[in-house]
Amino acid sequence: MKRNKEKESDGSSSRSRNNICQNEISATNGATDVGVSNFDNYAVQGKGGSKGTKGFPERGGGYNISGNKISADGARKVGIHNFGNTTFTTEEDHGEE
Question: Compositionally biased, Basic and acidic residues: which spans (predicted)?
Answer without folding.
Answer: 1-10
